[in-house]
User: What shape does this take?
Amino acid sequence: NFKLAYRNFLKYKSSFLINLIGLTSGLTCFFLIALWINDELNVNKFHAKDDQIYQIYMHHEESGKLRSGPAIPSLLPETLEEEYPEVIMGVEDTETNWFANNFALSNGKEMIKAPGKFGGKGYFSLFSYPLRHGDPAQVFDDKNSIVISEGLAVKLFGTTENVIGKSLSWHLLDDTGDVTVTGIMQTLPNASTETFEFAIPFQNFNDLLGDGVHWGNYTAYGFVELAEGTDVDAFNEKIAGLIKEKRPGINVTPFVTKYSDLYLRGDFDNGKIVGGRILYVKLFTAIALFILVIACINFMNLSTARAARRLKEIGVKKSLGASRKSLINQFLTESFMIATLATILAAGFVIALLPYFNQLTGKLLSIQITPQVIFMIVGIAASTGLLAGSYPALYLSGFKPIQIIKGKLTSSFGELWTRKGLVVFQFTLSIVMIVGVLVVYKQLEYIQSKNLGIKRENVLKLPVEGRILENMKTFITEVESIPGVVSASTSSHNFMKSTNSTTGVHWEGKDPDVQILFEQARSYYGLIETLGIELVAGRDFSEEYADENSKIIFNETAIEVMELEDPIGQTVKLWGKDKVIVGVAKDFIYSTLHEKVQPMLFHYDTEFLPNAFIKVKSENMSETLESLKSFYADFNPGYTLDYEFLDQNYYAQYLSEKRISSLSQVFAVVAIIISCLGLFGLAAFTAERREKEIGIRKILGAKHFSIVKLLSGDFTKMVLAAIIIALPLSYFVAEYWLTNFAYRITLSWIFFAAAGLTALFIAWLTVSIQTIKAARVNPINCLKDD
Assistant: This one.
């Protein structure tokens, strides 16, 4: 069988190469996507207690609907540990991004910025972040301790050896503290969503908050280790009323959800998990299977279409007593040989392409040869060979020897329709992928071009630190005097995502049973002007007015929710203090387009404003930046101007969508190429089979165009059928993906028309290569044998 397969490959080189290229391409894509999917499925799964680690979330009841989020009162984890036997350990922490580049460490000689967080006492016992030095259960026994990464240890001390016990000081805004190194942390695993380089006991954060530590202030993230066998649903019912008991009148409900599942399933809608990145995992699982199936379809179609070439071989073998089983084994051997060779080639391509694939996906994927991996590769090769070869083997082995020898064998109606159906299926999948690529691209383009109601362009964001903390007014005044600077201000908000919210707003006529969560931004003078936020009524905070501490500004959604008419001048209470409404800001997107605009308020403050914003002119920007650096070095000695462009930071949040778009484009192109390979092979076979017919038609006066039209007709019909099937299917797929965005494009018929016409044009181009070649053949050469 191996010898026969080898001879057949040599004899029918074009079919062999088309099948080999198609299967190799399909398997290469399949393996690359499988690596990506495997990495996604294992994010945050490396913790030893993975099955028992749950994150605490809270439902906020608002106007009959639930908003779910991870911010909780910092008192909650410890209370759960103390009062509920199901909880072995409760740990709180802060998100690394909360402090951005405001966190720094000093070794007494220099200040080094690094991403850091505050973590509860049992943080390194609950999570398996590997420590090179230090006991996970004891590193946070002392409030004045710190765990740093190996890289940070080298920056601070020049080594990772003998660092335990050395002193450091931490700096966050105008707060500082002295700590002792109690642990050295290894580089965090690639499978971790955390990126911190140092951690300090959470008690220090509570000390900073002071009176802010209470059941109505959501200043932490929380995690629990549940006892094995705990009924999570029953536990959630048990703790549902805990915060309401601790703080009557508040409409929040705590619940726990498995920590490692949140990476893929972290999107909530009205209190229910509705998805997340799992959507992309499902999408690329489908794409991987589609591409492999498309390649297998090529094998099936070409093998069955070229059956006539092997009729005598089959007839003679059957006449000499060959059983159908032996013939099936022979044809399956051929398909397994091609699949094995394609798998070997695909493995080589995966190794060669992996660095580029990592660049495209932003991951650090690697191939680790283990018995499980080898078993998987062998299994995929065998499955591909069986999938591609089973139908041709059954089809070819089923011919009757008498019919073959008498030459009475004709293609059956079912056989022709099966072959055509497979081509239609191929192009249906390809068209769905083309539509998907167009929709993803247009949505990302929409994100880039949509008027977000806030002008982040040419706005620098930098940390408020050092001398600026005590001389904010002077800093802003001097910055605004630099040529090229339009305006400057500071805020507690980063205007990239939800950062801080409160239910502490009350007004006349408010229903006491309704809790409304307001996004809040502490603001300095001129913030709204600096960010280009439009005011539909009233004014911004300004030095021209006295007592701005008693003033407040809401967005349109907040005014609508509060049902206030003529709000300017009305008084509301924020945390029990009277505030007069002086402005109403037009709704703007302060978070991503995945979320709808929520009620928001601005209130004047000078105490906690970690972010400075500087609006600069686009003209001569490089000179302006140089002037800013020079000024900053003089104004804030010991600190460097660590700025980011606010718009670049904002759009970086859509990096996942951009990578998905790029991956989709690549795999859609591969799917189309593989489909066209099969079409090319079928067109070549059709032209060859109808060679004599073409010769006779040309002798009788047929023109080249009519012959091309004749040969292309069947293929055109198949692609048109694929378009008819694919367009409604692709519409539902696109709609499903777009539901992840609160603000999205409207699906236009142009997307579907463009996808259909693209597929049709590519099919015509592919077929025309063969049909034009056939139409130009000299009829004498077609008929000379007869």
